[in-house]
Structure formats: structure tokens, C-alpha cells
Amino acid sequence: MYAKSAAAPLTLPDLHRRKRDGEKIVCVTAYEASIAARVDEAGVDLVLVGDSLGMVVQGHASTLPVTMDAMVYHTACVARGLRRAFLVADLPFMAFRDVPTAFANATRLVAEGGAAMVKLEGADWVCEIISALTSREIPVCAHLGLTPQSINRLGGYRVQGRETEAAERLRADARAVQDAGAQLLVLECVPSALAQAITRELHIPVIGIGAGVDCDGQVLVMHDLLGITPGKRPRFSKDFLAGSASVVDAIAAYARAVRAGEFPGPEHSY
What we know:
By secondary structure, this protein is an alpha/beta fold.
């Protein structure tokens, strides 16, 4: 059976303890209150209000058009539906371009939206932003590998870190964001062996999406998990609603598969 939503709310120390104890962390995206409540009912640990809403909710071709107002709105909707899961929200494109802007926008996600943590993409200059936010008591989740806000530079949604030099750079970036104060890391679309190495090197939890089974946890976009994303779905996704009796059962099946180390399988990895 899945966990009851009346359980005590999860905290950041709880997630760090999961990594130390070798317990997988289950994460999904959500964008509104009703799905958030079902996520809690299914026993998910971590909910991400991703700027992926620009594509799966708003119908854009990328995440770049998503605004801060949209992120605050959807984060607040999800927060009202949650009782147990830890809530993370994305800072959208250019919403963290400098320290004052990042601080103002992160404050909105926490104070108005109800997020417990903000997520931002990249390393290099982003490390200054991470340090500034964490020093001001705003927890940060970093995001490396395929970073959708960099789509114009990357030239497409491609696996990152395949070549030796790129892999070493990604490992260095992972250490850099941790040193800057990030307390979680999302790794997207990187080879499984590289993700495994990074997960072992870091003391913060690493959440994978298209990064193999050896990360500390997994995240899926809700629309991919339910098989309702239009067009071609990512290789790392799986339709858990197929064969399930309800949305809650599908989410709970995903959670069980992650915790058992059964998802992602080789067919979902690189």
C-alpha cells in the first residue's frame, strides 16, 4: 500500500538522511492542487513545480516563455494540495540573472508560493547565485546535465557528458554547486555511469531523470508518468497509468518501482 497523506511533512534533513541510509527518493512534477493531493496520497517524497509547465501545461515549444508570475501561481496551487511531500519550485529563464533578481524571485516562490526550496539550472556564474541564496536561508536545488533553459546554446534536447572532457566538466560542476551550498542536485540526460560516479562523489542527494538507476532518487514529469504527453515521449519516461486502476495507483506504482530499484531500467537510460 502507499503512504497516507496524514504523515508528518518531509524536511530537507529527511531527504539527506535518505541518501545516507540508501533509501531512494521519489519525486514527480505537479502544477495544481488536485494532482498534488493525489501525489501525497500515493506517498511521493518530493514534488517539483517545474518550468516544464511551459511545455506540458501552456503548450510552448520550450520552457523559455515561462514567467515568474506563472511559477508563483502554480507553486501556490500545488502547496495548497500538499500535506506531506517536500516542495521545490523552479526559477524560470533569466529569473536568477544576478543576485538581487534571484533573491527577489526566490523570495516570491517561498513567501508567496509556499516552496521549501528553489531550483536553478547551471554552474559557473550560477554558483555565486547559489551561495547568495543559501546564505540568506533559501535552500537551493541545482540542475546539471541537460538544462532546458540552455536549449538555444545546446541546439536540442541531447544527452550531456558522453565525451571524456564533457564528463569531467560535469563532475567538476557537480562538486562546484555542492561547494556553493546547493543541498540537492537534479541530473538530467547523462550517461548512467557518469551519474553513478557523481552520486557517489557528492554528499547531497542526487535526483536523476534519464540518468540511470544509481542516483539517490528519480523524478518524472507527471504528464510522462501518466502517458498523456503529446507527441514523442522521452526515452527516460514510462507510462505508469497503463494497467493501473487510477491516477493514484499509477503514481504509487512509480513510487514502488523507484524504491525497489526497478525504474529506470536499461531501456530508460543512456
